[in-house]
Amino acid sequence: MRPLRYSINVTLDGCCDHREGIVDEDLHRHAAENIAQADALLFGRVTYELMEAAWRLPARTGVKPDWMEPWMEPFARTIDAAKKYVVSSTLERVDWNAELVRGDVGKVVQQLKQESGKGLFVGGVKLPLALAELDD
Asked: Which of 13, 11, 4 is nearest to 27 (CA)?
């Protein structure tokens, strides 16, 4: 059974918004290492859309936005290449190496965990909270 690992960046004042924290090379290296230890990422819609908006184009096109530092490139390549499962009842489709997940999220996650492999990696706030509140 694959493990489901959870990780989130939180500032000392409790902010969970990755756009608001102070980022550095160590943080990006650690995140890339975590992602590389999983077979797939499990995102809710909000996290998927935030990550796709920030990392999809730089990794694919090689065109770096003004904000991207050279030490961010390995993270961009790692998250771009990762398989993604996106839990959403509102998105019509996903296509960033992603598969849309609908229905009973608890059952879907149990099925994904039953597959062999290194594990699943989940971040964000709403989806992990919903999973934690399941009776299973």
From this structure: 11
Domain ranges within the chain, ordered by starting residue: 4-132
36-65 in b/e form (b: 16+ CB < 10 A) is: eebebbbbbbebbbebbebbbebbeeeeee
Helix (H, G, I), strand (E, B) or coil at 101: strand
The yes/no answer on whether domain 4-132 falls in CATH 3.90.1150.10 is no
Report the residue count for the chain: 136
Angle at 42 between CA 41 and CA 43, to 5 degrees: 115
**Alpha-carbon torsion (24, 26, 28, 31), positive or negative:** negative
pLDDT in tens, 5-35: 988 877 777 766 666 667 789 988 999 999 9
- What secondary structure does DSSP assign to 11-73, as a single string? -TT----TTTSPP-HHHHHHHHHHHHTSSEEEEEHHHHHHHHHHHHHHHHH-PPPTT--GGGH
Which pTM does this prediction carry? Answer: 0.87
